[in-house]
Request: fold
Amino acid sequence: MATIRDVAKLAGVSVATVSRVLNRNGYVNDETKRKVTRAIETLQYEPNAVARGLAGKRTGTIALILPDISNPFFPEMARAVEDVARTNGYTVIFCNSDCEGEKEQSYIDILLNRYIDGIVFASHTLRPDDVKRMKQHNIPFVVLDRARADLECSVVRSKNFEGASMAVRHLLEVGCQKVAHIYGPQDVIPARDRLLGYEQSVKDFHWYTPTLMEPGDFRLDGGMRAAEALMERHPDLDGIFVGNDLMAIGALKALLRLGIQVPEQVAVCGFDGISLAEMTEPELTTIAQPIYEMGALAAELLIKKIEGAVAENRIHELDVTLIPRKSTQRETRS
Ligand code: RIB
Reply:
């Protein structure tokens, strides 16, 4: 059965564009509409086949549990989940766990008693016991982005380790001689994988020392404080790979306050690819995750599980992309 990603690939457009054509929301030019329609016909993609063929669909409702609704990364992801859900005849209940295990467990209790059809977990506090409860209640679920390695379930995430290596390589290629890292909370698998990717990339350089790694909290002010601490400890560093875009924006503010020129004195690269990264001055170079595609794939996998069309429990790792912007655009030192 063709998926929305197959249609996007054949039409040469993004999954978001296919969603817009199917849901008739947002602008799509006629030529693109024709390409998408032709691809749908060629592949005989039937988004509503799932909804139309549903015998005994219980409620047509799925839930998405997010860890931090205040971080723009998650609304961008939630948009994709909602688009694909609507295309297939489902509505979405959004829950914000605030990264708290107890809050997530209380949501699970409520949701299991509300007869929803399935859950996408974008949080990182899901425990093996919760997995057991979901299976006992026969509630399909998919883990998106922050999967724990010990859970037997379908996972959609991006290549965090490789993305960190890409960031460090880019900073070195633009001439950085000493690169630091501000990392996210280590109970979050993507943050841990990015830290490992950074360490793997720099551990053999003569200038490397563990004090070049500073903890952050994936938030703006955490990034600002971490950058201040790094510059205090290593005033000669000239590149910082930051574990997410919000902390990188905070780091830009700290460097500005310290009178440090970006990128001339210190080049900065973030991670995520949120749209806010284009609004900073200088604009932020980042490692972009396929945020929309991740959310769309997770929703598709969940709906297929709900309908019994797929029973796989495997990890889907999607590629990330370097987006060079002004925060690393410096003359390469000869
Ligand atoms: O910015 C929020 C971070 O948490 C992102 O990097 C994303 O991967 C999530 O895990």
Residues 49-55 have pLDDT under 50 and may be disordered.
